Amino acid sequence: MLRLWKLAEKSPLAASVRRIHSSSTNLASSQPSASATPASSPKWTPNSIRTGVIARKRGMTVLWTDQGARIPVTVLQLENCQVTANIKTVRRNHTEYHAVQVGATDRPVKTESNQMLGHFNKARVPPKRIVREFPVTPDAHVPVGTKLSAIHFVPGQFVDVVANGIGKGFAGGMKRWGFHGLAASHGVSISHRSSGSTGQHQDPGRVFPGKKMPGRLGGKRITTQNLAVVRVDTTLDLVFVRGAVPGFDDAHVLIRDAKKKMLALSSHNQAKGLYEKVLPTGVDDLPFPAGTAQLAKTLPSIIESPAYRRSPFIPQE
């Protein structure tokens, strides 16, 4: 069993976050930067947009607070998540697009295409099953080959999780849209779960686009926003987020900093100069430009948010 570490009452999460930031800054300066990678900013700013990570949904469990409150959490695990490329393009309107390409979950060489093998060999990383890119600001590029860790996200912050929802096949109007159906008493003949009338008379004589009708349910890209990070396991690369996330168990999901809680809030507070209200309470800074595997080795195996400490009557290892 892994030894569980808890943050002491006299050393709040902010001190741990500051140590995370200082360690990540030293690591970023010591890592060799690629030719296409611009110089990274030494400190995260409210206008900075970091890269996200690719994880796998392992399932749901529960945690308890000191008051005994039961909190449902989803366990997300990083599987050899590495940076495969840094992207910089100039649009027609002369604006720049910056992104970090990330790959996760190693796959056998014989199952990969020659084109992608050449791409991975250039980045000096093993073949990956999934590759995605995350838009970033020019100061948030990460050296190619960097292995990202669960410490990329700090307990107490908010994240957005993107994945494909579970497909449920063809469904009727009641299951797909929540219609209550027709009357189940006299006057209705074999139409209790029917959607009823879907059109009009001769004018306009058609069904308008977007009409809620039976059809394919689920299987679409879903973004669940503003999920709180409750716990981070640096040894197993686990991220515990409060609530449910889309996708089935073992599905790949994308995790990134919450846009509404951080990015949109930073743009609003920038005019007022209220930078201290951009990050949640108890979080002073974030690992910038990324939380690496080398940084995770310098931290405790378990880091929890002070608001979601485990209950004292639960046995500790």
Automatic annotation (TrEMBL):
Which Gene Ontology terms of cellular component type are present?
mitochondrial large ribosomal subunit
For this UniProt record, the keywords arranged alphabetically read as follows: Ribonucleoprotein, Ribosomal protein
Kindly indicate whether the keyword Acyltransferase belongs to this entry.
Answer: no
UniProt lists compositionally biased (Polar residues) regions at 191-201
**Residues covered by region (Disordered):** 23-47, 190-216
| Stretches of the chain forming a coiled coil according to its record | none
Compositionally biased tracts (Low complexity): 28-42
GO BP terms in the entry:
translation
Keyword Ribosomal protein attached: yes
Q: Name one GO molecular function term.
A: structural constituent of ribosome
InterPro entries noted in UniProt? Ribosomal_uL3, Ribosomal_uL3_bac/org-type, Transl_B-barrel_sf
Which Pfam families is this protein grouped with? Answer: Ribosomal_L3 (PF00297)
- Which superkingdom is the protein from? Eukaryota
The family this protein is said to belong to: Belongs to the universal ribosomal protein uL3 family.
- PANTHER family to which the protein is assigned, alphabetical: 50S RIBOSOMAL PROTEIN L3, LARGE RIBOSOMAL SUBUNIT PROTEIN UL3M
Q: What is this protein called?
A: Large ribosomal subunit protein uL3m
Its lineage opens with: Eukaryota, Fungi, Dikarya, Basidiomycota, Agaricomycotina
